[in-house]
Please model this.
Amino acid sequence: MGQTRHHARLSMRKRLRAEKFVAARAKRCAEPGRAPISEGMTRWIPLVALGFFTLTASFGAAQSAEAPEAGAIRPAGEATLEEFLWINRPLVVFADNPADPRYVQQMQLVTERLDALTERDVVVITDTDPAARSPIRQALRARGFMFVLIAKDGTVILRKPAPWDVREISRSIDKQPLRQQEVRDRRDQLRQ
Model:
């Protein structure tokens, strides 16, 4: 008998809640400019919109990252700095893991203006695994986040513990005598 009273109280509570819900819903739908949308639908709209915008943003970022030269950004792996001597200017970005906010910010800055770097023969090399002890990490003795810009002759131009904009990196490259000579040579070739 006690159990049936308990069920009766629960069903009475459920009915009261349902009545309050229906009344509140009717009141919301009666407001001017409000279309009657089912309650379940209003819960899904923000989630669907969030998913849609996340997918389109990541798709757009992937397309823009693939547009420039395919070898412009590469992992350190077993590469050595000697491979780039007199050919490219390595911009090496180190971090202890790929989720480091400074690493993420630096890579966003780089990918936004990768064309300016490829114009200056820059190859971006990433190393986010200190346990692998890549030859480049050992040569530059990196700890935590750091980016290093190296000239074509192998000298270190910049060594910074914080992200830098590509415009600032480009200015540092453009001040180098070898880069100024490259610009003069290209100008002379265009005149002929």
